Fold this sequence. Notes:
The chain has 193 residues and is an alpha+beta fold. It has one domain (13-190): Alpha-Beta Plaits (2-Layer Sandwich). 37% of the residues lie in helices and 30% in strands. It is built from 6 helices and 8 strands. The strands form 2 sheets. Strands 1, 2, 3, 4, 5 and 6 form a 6-stranded mixed sheet that branches. It has a two-stranded antiparallel sheet with strand order 7-8. Helix 1 (30-52) runs antiparallel to helix 3 (84-104). The longest helix is centred in the N-terminal third of the chain and has 23 residues, at 30-52. It is globular, with a radius of gyration of 16 Å. The relative contact order is 0.18.
Amino acid sequence: xxxxxxxxxxxxxxxxxxxxxxxxxxxxxxxxxxxxxxxxxxxxxxxxxxxxxxxxxxxxxxxxxxxxxxxxxxxxxxxxxxxxxxxxxxxxxxxxxxxxxxxxxxxxxxxxxxxxxxxxxxxxxxxxxxxxxxxxxxxxxxxxxxxxxxxxxxxxxxxxxxxxxxxxxxxxxxxxxxxxxxxxxxxxxxxxx
Length: 193
């Protein structure tokens, strides 16, 4: 059954969540903030046709939802546990496009992608998947996979898919992500092609 935002039976959803911050906005003047909001709205409009293509992935799924809060874009897509692996490739394409369009619009996006349970109620998105997508210590722009999703995906690849990753390796590469405090952590990241 198609639902938008949450499972009507138990009030929560299982899906893919990505949180993207636009860097540097907190120091903007009022005029720069207005310009940013116009650019952000154009970015979201440009991503809309790609979001609508998600229904081609599985006909019974709703397209992802894009919410905003201040300088943050929140991507949520209800896919169910059995479709996560297949769902990550179109999500990676969307995130890659978002990062590239962000650069075009002079907005550097930093974020993370996660999988898990969450609840959407009006303009609020909360839950395990949202908490796992927090990425405050990354000192760069780009999108990383959270360690929980990486573990989940490695298990899926090894147990159900063997060595066939379904295009996963094309979109997610390992990289030494710089962290605040001059540290680095090897993580999988979305490739901005």
